[in-house]
Write a structure and sequence with these properties.
The protein is an alpha/beta fold. The chain contains three helices and seven strands.
């Protein structure tokens, strides 16, 4: 796995998820221990459910730790006036006149519903390096969308 870029905020969120999952794992391990003491090993027992849940949590922790171990945390460059990872941009959809704000983030941080887009997405790739006033097109699987950068800022 090659190094993927991530903001410090995204890294902190990921670490919080790992910590929360670790807390859940401790609770599930207690349930497994209680099931062993009760010697109730039926397929639908609380022991079996806890063992299955433990496996899911362990796999998720392992997946997230792999991401953490293979990411490069970036520092937002406050000196430049161009869009880069960690910066937000107010864009105008030239075709529709609609304005939107997007924040450029790492792959594992992206959440388009709240305006966080991956730097590897079609829009993210087109947006990197843009400056206020720049216009560019984004090719999506269904159409071309033309955007203009209205403003660049840091949240």
């Amino acid at each position: 796995m090659s190094k993927l870029m991530m903001t410090k905020s995204g890294y902190d969120d990921l670490m919080e998820k790992i910590n929360n999952l670790s807390d859940s794992l401790r609770e599930v391990n207690e349930a497994v221990s209680e099931g062993i003491e009760a010697r109730d090993f039926r397929e639908d027992s609380s022991f079996s459910v806890a063992v299955e849940e433990r496996s899911k949590i362990q796999m998720k922790i392992q997946e997230l730790e792999e991401v953490v171990n293979n990411c490069a945390i970036i520092t937002v460059d406050r000196k430049t006036d161009c869009v880069d990872l960690g910066k937000s941009a107010k864009l105008l959809n030239v075709d529709t006149g609609e304005e939107k704000i997007f924040t450029l983030v790492g792959v594992y941080e992206s959440n388009p519903k709240v305006g966080k887009i991956s730097y590897l997405s079609p829009l993210g790739k087109s947006l990197i390096g843009s400056r206020k006033g720049d216009e560019f097109e984004v090719l999506t699987p269904t159409k071309e969308v033309y955007w203009e950068v209205l403003d660049i800022f840091i949240h």
